Amino acid sequence: MDETVAEYIRRTVLKIPRDEIKTMLQKWGFLSEMQLQTVNFHQLKENISQDVVQLCEENSADIKQAAVLDIIYNHIYPNKRMWSVYQMNKTGEEIEFFDFTDFKKKFKRRLRSALKNVTINFREYEDNAIWIRIAWGTPYTKPNQYKTSYVVYHSQTPYVFLSASVLRSNLPLLCQALVVASNYHDIREVELRSHSLNSLKDIVFKRYSQNFQTYCPRPLSERKVAPESADVRIIQENRNEKERIQRVNREVFGDGPQPKLEFAQYKLETMFKSDPKMDVMYKKEPFRCLVKFSSPHLLESLKSLAPVGMADAPLSPLLTCIPHKARNYFKIREKKGFFPESFVSP
Amino acid sequence: MESVEGAARTLPSIGRLSRGPPFGRAQGRFGLSPSGRLLPPAPRSQENVDPQQTAFLLRKQWTLYSVTPLYRFSGARLRDYGRLLGAFIAAEKQKGLAVEVGVELDIKVAVSSLPDLRGSDQDQAAVLVQLSSRSSASRKNSEEKLLWSGWFCCVSGDDLSERVPEDFTCLPLFLANGAESYTSIVGSWFQKTFDCCFRRLAISPLNLSWMAAMWTGCKVDKTASALELVFSVPSLPQPLDILYAIHPEDAKDLWDTVQKTPGEITQEEVDVFMDCLYSHFHRHFKIRLSATKLVKVSTAIASAHCDGFIKFLQSQYLTGVLMLLTELAISQIQ
After folding, report:
1. Residues A89 and A195 in one domain
2. Domain ends where: A58, A76, A94?
3. Running along chain B, 334 residues long, what does each successive block of 10 average in pLDDT?
4. Tens digits of residue pLDDT in B134-166
5. What number is the ipTM of this complex?
6. Are residues A191 and A103 in the same domain?
7. In this structure, what are the phi and psi dihedrals at residue A230, rounded to the nearest 5 degrees?
8. What residues of chain A lie within 8 A of the CB of B224, using their CB?
9. In 3-state terms, what secondary structure has residue B250?
């Protein structure tokens, strides 16, 4: 077995949390159950990985098999990578039957025609998601297994989720191969990025709970705004306002859990307008700024601002439109014409 | 240590100010928000500070401390102090308080003076302490690596130095760069030797807004970088950080329309400037930035963080920023 393959397998196993190693190797299926029995999965990870490499040596593993283990790891832990969203377009409404074999053939052929040194692996999952792993080389060097791009393509949709690696120069080629293989015409990047692959899918496939009015809302009396204190003498001031904020928040954000995004970025090129009381004259050109919101769970964070008094309710549509518009990068310019107060995102 | 006697505070005389660097001295009592800061019209650049000498201070992150006056410190004995500190560090290492585990390091200590870093002749010249390592394995042809730097300074600290008895030296601001363990050892030695006290210097959101306003108004030769403000809302179930970056020309234009009194910046002007930025933000996002915590301000001049970190980016404004920081350090000591 090639020593680079051995090292690659060793490092991949080391990434896996110790309690998960056995299950993942079973999913991989490259080592037999009998072989797995011989490994002590309670020892130090360094030793486990050495034992695994030893067994792979016995089975003469090659890079393609090692790559499959990597796909399995990334499928279970996708949040370690940053994912971008792309959408493909085609003219015409023909609903073609998706032929996986044909897709693979065309994809490989297109990539390899431009770049011989690539490792390409496919794996299909139950939810019609096709995972593609690509390790990139150059015309003169072998593929670098540590610099991989991942593509997740839901064949029933025009959406592709991409975790490109450092080599952005390979991106056009990758996009081209996808378009050709899937019989679309072109592909464009959607301004939406996150570590949480599932949340991106939720947003794009509209799987999060939206604020549909058809949902039967529980009457307000059932939903307590704050725990009632036992002492009847303590009354809540601003109860109406608090309830209004809760209601408006629910309308705008929906009831269910929000998709998990880490940031939203706005490039603002709107006119500066101050409070007339402040007596500040300002120029006629746009006031250029960049605003970036970051949080471990941005939408939940924004949802909690109004109830604590840090924001008005309803919150600005610039923020609440993020899931509907399926984007977290915006460029906001002043809309000219009838409504100088409103904003347009191009 | 004897406490500093509180004498009547005098306002700085105008004569001294006209020599000073571009950032004004605070009028009014320390510890409260200054009602205004005076500014002379043009920035003092190369006359005070040799950019070559101080280039190594730029673009590094410095941790800020306030230091109470040093008892029986002499600017003429810096070499001696270097030796004594070196011996102290070696002794600490012997005791097993290893600063770097598993590495055999000879630590060389250099204590020197930075005479240009001061506001006026009344100020004590800045004192620089540097710890370098020389690997004891190959003593002959090894390179010295700078491990840690720290410097004491006082820029326009007359309000403190005027009120302090003879035996005390005022160097209220201390800046450190390098491993915390070294800062701790050096700090302990100074505390023991000069009977002083180090405290981390935090920068309040109020003072950060001052810095944002003042630094936005400064002229810079090269293309300026954006005015960046970072706000934090840690107390939410999911914490939120907001970066608000304004194009430097637009920020300066806004400040220029707000800043009306020539030669002086007032609290009111700073408030109006910040309120303008907050209201522009609110118009778009309906979020009240004034209810959040301003934690970091960054401009082409310098960047400052509320936990007491500073980065100097322009040598021509170095003493100006130091003057502001000296003021903050002094107000923490009182």
Report:
1. yes
2. A76
3. 32 28 42 53 46 84 95 91 92 70 72 86 89 69 82 88 88 94 93 95 94 88 86 91 94 88 84 92 92 95 95 89 92 88
4. 765 555 556 788 999 999 999 988 878 888 888
5. 0.81
6. yes
7. -65, -30
8. none
9. helix
Residue A245 has pLDDT above 80, yes or no: yes
Q: Is residue A88 part of a domain?
A: yes
* Under 8 Å between Cβ of B47 and B319: no
Instruction: Please report, for the domain that includes residue A182, its CATH number.
Output: 3.60.90
Question: Looking at residue A154, what is its pLDDT?
Answer: 92
Q: Average pLDDT over chain A, rounded to whole?
A: 84
Amino acid at B43: P
Pick the last residue of a domain from A43, A76, A109. A76
- Shared domain for A24 and A100, answered yes or no, is no
CATH number, residue A310:
3.10.20
- Encoded amino acid at B73, one letter: F
Mean pLDDT of A8-15: 93
Cβ separation of B280 and A289 shorter than 8 Å?
yes
How far away is chain A from the Cα of B218, in angstroms, using its nearest Cα?
A: 19
Query: In this complex, is the C-beta atom of B295 within 8 Å of any C-beta atom belonging to chain A?
Result: no
Retrieve residue B206's tokens. 């109020």
State how many domains chain A has: 3
Whether residue A37 is contained in a domain is answered as yes
Alpha-carbon distance of A96 to A182, in angstroms, equals 10
How far is residue B327's CA from residue B323's CA, in Å, rounded to a whole number? 6
Would you call B243 and A294 a contact, using CB atoms and an 8 Å cutoff? yes
Q: In terms of domains, do A28 and A102 share one?
A: no
Flag whether A218 is in a domain. Answer: no
Which chain B positions have a beta carbon within 8 Å of A310's beta carbon? Answer: 233, 287-288, 291-292
Q: Which domain holds residue A291?
A: 247-333
CB distance from B250 to chain A under 8 Å? yes
Helix then strand count (H, E) for chain A reads 12, 10
Q: Which of B233, B279, B285 sits opposite A274 (nearest CB)?
A: B279
A92 and A66 belong to one structural domain = no
Q: Which of B237, B244, B253 sits opposite A291 (nearest CB)?
A: B244
* Closest residue, chain A, to B238 (C-alpha): A301
Domain assignment present for residue A199? The answer is yes
Question: Alpha carbon of A159 to those of A44, A83, B125: distances in Å?
Answer: 41, 12, 65
CB B219 within 8 A of CB B317: no
- pLDDT confidence bin for A2, thresholds 50/70/90: confident
* Tokens found for residue A175: 């996009």
Q: Do A301 and B239 touch (CB under 8 A)?
A: yes
Position A234 confidence tier, pLDDT thresholds 50, 70, 90: low
Among B239, B243, B283, beta carbon nearest to A273: B283
* Higher-pLDDT residue of B157, A234: B157
Helix (H) or strand (E) holding B214: helix B205-216
A72 and A100, same domain (yes or no): no
- Burial group, residue B18, by CB count within 10 angstroms (0-12, 13-18, 19+): exposed
Cβ-Cβ contacts under 8 Å, B226 against chain A? 290
Structure tokens at A109: 């052929």
A105 and A36 within one domain: no
My answer on whether A308 and A324 are in the same domain is yes
Interface test with B, best of A266, A267, A305, A332 (most B CBs within 10 A): A305
Q: Model pTM greater than 0.90?
A: no
Which DSSP category does A225 fall into? S
